[in-house]
Automatic annotation (TrEMBL):
Subcellular location(s) per record: Cell membrane
Protein name: Urea transporter
Reaction catalyzed: urea(in) = urea(out)
The family this protein is said to belong to: Belongs to the urea transporter family.
UniProt keyword annotations, A-Z: Cell membrane, Membrane, Transmembrane, Transmembrane helix, Transport
InterPro entries: Ammonium/urea_transptr, Urea_transporter
Residue stretches spanning the membrane: 49-68, 122-141, 153-174, 194-216, 228-253, 259-281, 288-306, 312-331
GO molecular function, one term: urea transmembrane transporter activity
Organism: Salarias fasciatus (Jewelled blenny)
Topology term for the membrane: Multi-pass membrane protein
Disordered, as annotated region: 1-27, 351-371
Main localisation: membrane
Any one GO cellular component localisation term in the record: plasma membrane
Keyword set includes Transmembrane helix: yes
Gene designation: si:dkey-183c6.7
Length: 371
């Protein structure tokens, strides 16, 4: 952002401020460069939803969303664009903007507004609250960051969860302009409950990864899983493992069959397992067990909070896993030694290499100082 501003200044004369010959072409090139940068920042924001940071993965995810529903793909693109532009205009930290940290909350809130809307696809008036809600996430992110930084905690998707709940509370199922479907508690008994279909339950495991983006179609969900695999195989393994754990937790609590078949029981567990299993903690057998525990706790918290908030027709979205991960990052004891500072988090494989190099350096230093 700063470099683009400096280049614009260099294209001007001192004193009169007259343009040099060819400066209009330079400005056009700068505008094209900014649009390209904005696209890259937005794609990074898309991948931040799955705890990744790769524009190519963002392209695959956007393709998956457009494949599943062009309307949802449009809402997601508009949400990430509105929040990223808001961050640029309001002068947020350029490093955070370029890493996509101001885009993913806006994308999530726009996707969920589309999913819960009972006005159907291509309801153009919905674009107005989508833009406003996405912009709101930027201010919430900035405000919460100053608080969370004191404990070296990520803001994560707290802005998204706060914004979507406020929106649903403001509108309601019978709103004349922006009505939405009320959420159904997962523990509600089914009128015509039949035996479970095993193949549908197994199918729900990869769908749990797709539900991170509110996508309930198998093909697009597999493409989203492929984008995770492209970024980090270790992260993809933990995503499937966490979704399977969430499905198992749902089975143990006899949740509605639809929650199991659609992957809604698995996505909180998937996110919890991904975050702890190599992302915010260096991967080891101890942190792997902690990731499994985090997945179970996230899934059961999802069921408990969904049953409570579902009584008033509200979803919990990803609030359960966000709270659980925050508590996990505050752990003390021997596991705290595996914690990676928030500003140094990379792909799990790179985290593992960095820790090995750091430990090797410390070993050499100790040997050189031994008498």
């Amino acid at each position: 952002i700063d470099s683009a501003t400096n280049l614009r200044r260099e294209n001007k004369h001192g004193g009169r401020g007259e343009s040099q010959p060819g400066s209009e072409g330079s400005n056009k090139r700068l505008d094209k460069a900014f649009v390209l940068q904005l696209a890259v920042w937005g794609l990074r924001g898309v991948t931040r939803v799955i705890l990744a940071n790769n524009p190519l993965c963002g392209v695959l995810i956007m393709a998956a969303l457009l494949w599943a529903s062009p309307w949802q793909g449009l809402l997601g693109a508009l949400g990430v664009l509105a929040s990223t532009l808001t961050a640029v205009i309001t002068g947020q930290d350029s490093g955070e903007v370029t890493k996509g940290l101001h885009g993913f909350n806006g994308m999530l809130v726009s996707l969920l507004m589309g999913v819960f809307s009972s006005s159907g696809d291509w309801y153009w008036w919905l674009l107005l609250p989508v833009c406003l809600a996405s912009a709101t996430c930027v201010f919430l992110f900035s405000g919460l960051a100053s608080l969370f930084d004191r404990w070296d905690l990520p803001v994560a998707v707290f802005p998204f969860n706060i914004t979507i709940l406020l929106y649903l509370l403001c509108t309601g199922p019978n709103n004349p302009y922006f009505p939405h479907h009320p959420a159904v508690p997962p523990g509600m008994l089914e009128a015509n409950g039949t035996s479970l279909i095993a193949i549908q339950v197994i199918r729900g495991i990869p769908l749990g990864v797709g539900q991170i983006f509110a996508c309930g179609a198998l093909g697009p969900s597999l493409l989203i899983l492929g984008s995770v695999l492209l970024y980090s195989p270790l992260l993809a393994v933990h995503a499937l493992l966490g979704s399977a754990i969430g499905t198992l937790a749902g089975l143990s609590m006899a949740v509605r069959h639809e929650a199991l078949y659609s992957g809604l029981s698995g996505f909180n567990g998937a996110l919890g397992c991904m975050a702890v299993g190599g992302l915010f903690f260096t991967f080891s057998w101890r942190t792997h067990l902690l990731a499994i525990a985090c997945a179970f706790l996230s899934a059961y918290s999802d069921i408990a909070l969904s049953n409570m908030m579902g009584t008033i027709g509200l979803p919990v979205c990803s609030l359960p896993v966000t709270l659980v991960i925050t508590l996990m990052l505050l752990l003390n004891g021997s596991l705290a030694a595996y914690r990676i500072p928030t500003g140094q988090v990379m792909a799990p494989e790179r985290n593992l290499r960095s820790r090995s190099q750091w430990e090797a350096g410390n070993t050499e230093e100790r040997e050189s100082t031994d008498v």
